[in-house]
Amino acid sequence: MRQLIAETVDRIHAWHTRWPNAAVLWSGGKDSTAMLHVLLHYCGIDLPVVQYREPKLRERYAYSDRLIKEWGLTIYDYPPTRMAIADGPDTETGQMRFDMLKYYQWGETAVVMSLGTERPKPGERFLCGVTDFLQRPTGNFNWPWEAVYIGTKYEDTDLIKGHVPLALDIRNVPGGPVSLYPMRDWSDRDIYTYLEDHGVTPDPTRYIKTEAGWINNPDKSLNADFYPTCFNCVDRHAGPHVDCPKLKARISNISHLAPYEDIVFPDLGFKPIWNTTANGVELAAPTSGAGPSCAATAPTPQAFQPTTSAPTTPCSRPNPAAAASPSVARWAEESPAQYTNPAHTPAVPSSPAAHSA
Questions:
Q1: Residue 264 — pLDDT band, cuts 50, 70, 90?
Q2: What DSSP state is assigned to residue 133?
Q3: Residue 105's closest CA among 53, 175, 17, 154?
Q4: Contacts made by residues 335-341, CB under 8 angstroms, sequence distance 24+
Q5: 80, 169, 210, 286: which sits with the fewest CB atoms below 10 Å from its CB?
Q6: pLDDT digits (tens, 9 = 90+) for 164-197
Q7: Where are the strands (E) in 182-293, listed by range?
């Protein structure tokens, strides 16, 4: 552990000399918390911190709020520029999982952050996938930093993408800040050992310690990485009519308007989930929208960064949608009337989640 810490400290010092005007991306999760502690207490580097928060269910940030006070952090938060949806089979249960994709201004470009969701439990407070996410206020931000420290590791996993092996320590993006990954070689065990050795308890809403060691807390009721959210009316795996628990009514499925995307970052380990075939080569689908939903077909969301190869998934041979994903403006313009007045909405065809660092 001492050697690992020493190597990380040396790396950070070298990077700080090269990019002194930097910020720290902090979710409150174990990895970014350990990284922030190394920066502050080993390197003596006090940088501004960016933590993206949700407007509702703010009690989920109690752990972060405590560390902000104890460590004297300077925190920035700002709204996303646009929203989208990612879906795919849960790697643990096989059930369909939905992530909210939030695009944030980073210099002249934008970065996408994935926020996990859970199906609401009976009696639980929940968010609406339409009004609380897809129609939320958006805006731009003057990003003043030339680099950003991120706590992503090589061994990280995602509940939709599976293992997402980080392939590099430094990632350059034209028009955006340099992404720095000082914890890439750390393991989960290293992170937990480091935090315990330095008297920092991991967020109990996210992690718990058992006789076998630390594990993810199965109770996500206060976890800021997973929000209870209803996607019934934009679920492209559901039928033409769905139940809306918010309106307490049977309404039309408007998933044909929803901006579905499949995030693909090869160097960050994010490979395509939904694929199509062109000239015998598997490709990430270039379009967005709903495809027929059945055991033999799959949706074809827009690929954020298309690649020429993709893994085989349980759902294959999709039928690409004819039109591209609607813009945020079109979504905001068309969906409210259809969402709130199902009686006047024509039936639509049946249509078909790295959260914490």
A1: confident
A2: I
A3: 175
A4: 335/130, 335/134, 335/135, 335/254, 335/257, 336/135, 338/252, 338/254, 338/257, 339/130, 339/233, 339/251, 339/254, 340/247
A5: 210
A6: 999 999 999 889 999 999 999 999 999 999 999 9
A7: 207-210, 213-216, 226-230, 241-244, 249-252, 261-262, 275-278, 281-284
Strand 147-149 and strand 178-180: the pairing is parallel
Beta bridge partners of residue 82, listed in sequence order:
103
* Region 21-25 average pLDDT: 97
**Whole-structure pTM value:** 0.79
Give how far Cα 70 sits from Cα of 35, 174, 200, 231, 305, Å: 16, 36, 11, 38, 40
**232, 253, 271, 260: which is closest to 324 by C-alpha?**
260
Q: Where are the domains of the chain?
A: 2-79+141-216, 234-344
Terminal-to-terminal C-alpha distance of the chain: 20
Q: Give me 83's structure tokens.
A: 């929203």
CATH number among 2.60.40.4070, 3.30.200.20, 3.40.50.620, 3.40.50.360, domain 2-79+141-216: 3.40.50.620
Q: How many CB atoms lie within 10 A of CB 44?
A: 10
> Higher pLDDT residue, 273 or 38?
38
